[in-house]
Design a protein that fits this description.
Largest sheet: 6 strands, parallel
Order of helices and strands: HHHHHHEHEHEEHHEHEHHEEHEHEHEHE
Structural class: alpha/beta
Number of helices: 17
Length: about 475
């Protein structure tokens, strides 16, 4: 009786924790990287795990009791909304539970390997058992989408990649092309192979003249998979920066991986790269290319950041290549669309909100801060710092803190008492900073400041899991 009671008490906590990791990781390598990063990020978990291991040698009942408390603590530590079910998750739950039940009946319950390690093992085993079926289903839909794309012989396909600025370039370029052509672009942040496959199958029409797609990668050979779906007429690389360094490791690896978009081009295809990325990209580029973003004097009278002006110059360079009229481009500048959460400006009374919270990177953050400092009234920054920078996490956040010197208020969202951004900001002699734990806490603090104010939102949130 006690045996079964312990089983049903411990299993839910173990499973919820393990499921949170494995549901989002389709390769063991990435799963193990995420697990390693978790323990390095929250070092007290190492001590708790070691404590559980030691207790397992002395008293099996005490071992299970402490382990149960450990996982209860771990469960309460995470946000309430992280356990989100989807079809793959339901299959994982069902299969792993059956395997767990079989192991429970036939294995020695007092063994250390059960249930502390077996839960991870069985979930991984379930993942591998489902993997062939999942692969077959994926390939079916990929081939269906590829067949559809191949039948669109008159459609010109534009692929956009880069460390940052992909969605802005996609939004500007597709909006410009729609003024003359039947053009559609991948929606929102859809930039993975399966996301684009689903979109092509469900939404793309064969009569399209221009198809603009965003190609997102976060590993060294990530671009290769898009060859299953697209053969590009044009390709853009919007910039190279220290983003996703948890998987890329070095800036050179980022450049090499992004430059692989050239191999998706047709023989007569054309490559465009942002001029500041040229030194990093040139060693890996084997085809001819055109640069953009250098000569932007003609945009000096526009109320745009340097980042946005470079994206517009990319559209201008493409316009010249395709010999589209200047008048159409000038008309487009007057009606530039906002890209959600990418330097999106909203105004209400005396409050101006600059939402630049999506995929924050060192370059975009710098441009946004420079723009904020030029505004009238009280200037406020709400930020959680920069993420996914690997070994550059400390230095880049420290530098970002230094750049914030001169603003009227900084609200830092963090649970770390020694955040590198805080150190960088305080090193300038400024003390107008307040620390909160959540974005929800930060908004009222900003709004309670009286008078005209501009709030720059650079807060993506705390996300140390590698997705």
């Amino acid at each position: 009786m006690i045996k079964w009671l312990l089983f049903f008490l411990i299993y839910p906590f173990l499973f919820v924790l393990c499921f949170h990791f494995i549901k989002g990781y389709y390769s063991p390598k990435r799963f193990l990287i995420a697990l390693k990063d978790l323990f390095f990020e929250r070092k007290y978990l190492v001590f708790l795990a070691c404590g559980i291991f030691l207790f397992s040698f002395f008293d099996s009942f005490l071992f299970f009791l402490i382990q149960g408390i450990f996982f209860l603590f771990f469960f309460l530590l995470f946000p309430k909304n992280f356990f989100v079910l989807h079809r793959r998750g339901i299959f994982l739950i069902f299969l792993s539970f059956l395997l767990y039940l079989l192991f429970f009946i036939f294995m020695d319950f007092s063994s250390f390997f059960f249930p502390f390690i077996s839960t991870f093992f069985l979930l991984l085993l379930s993942h591998f058992l489902l993997y062939p079926f999942e692969t077959m289903v994926k390939q079916f839909y990929i081939k269906k989408a590829a067949k559809k794309i191949k039948s669109m012989e008159s459609t010109k396909i534009i692929g956009i990649t880069g460390s940052f600025g992909k969605t802005t370039m996609k939004t500007y370029l597709s909006s410009f092309l729609r003024k003359k052509y039947f053009c559609i672009s991948s929606p929102g942040n859809v930039n993975t192979l399966m996301g684009l496959t689903k979109w092509v199958n469900q939404n793309v029409e064969k009569e399209v003249e221009f198809l603009v797609v965003e190609l997102g990668i976060d590993e060294k050979k990530g671009m290769k998979k898009f060859a299953k779906l697209f053969s590009l007429d044009f390709a853009f690389i919007t910039g190279i920066g220290p983003v996703h360094l948890s998987t890329f490791r070095t800036l050179q690896n980022v450049a090499k991986a992004k430059s692989a978009i050239q191999f998706l081009l047709k023989k007569e295809g054309k490559l465009f790269i942002e001029h500041e990325a040229k030194p990093l990209l040139k060693p890996y580029i084997l085809t001819s290319f055109s640069c953009y973003g250098e000569n932007i004097a003609y945009l000096k009278d526009t109320n745009l950041t340097l980042f946005q002006k470079k994206a517009l110059d990319g559209v201008f360079t493409f316009k010249n290549h395709e010999k589209i009229s200047d008048k159409l481009f000038m008309d487009f500048i007057k009606t530039i669309p906002n890209t959600p959460r990418r330097f999106e400006i909203k105004k209400q009374g005396e409050i101006t909100l600059i939402d630049d919270s999506y995929n924050i990177n060192p370059y975009g953050a710098k441009f946004a801060i420079e723009y904020l400092k030029k505004q009238d009234g009280v200037r406020i920054i709400i930020t959680g710092g920069l993420l996914e920078l690997g070994k550059l996490y400390t230095t880049e956040n420290y530098d970002l803190g230094v750049q914030m010197k001169g603003v009227d208020k900084v609200i830092l969202i963090t649970k770390k008492k020694k955040h590198p951004l805080l150190k960088g900001y305080l090193s300038t002699g400024e003390k107008k900073i307040q620390i909160v734990k959540t974005l929800k806490e930060s908004i009222p603090l900003a709004l309670q400041i009286k008078g005209k104010k501009t709030i720059l939102l650079l807060a993506k949130g705390d996300d140390f899991f590698l997705k």
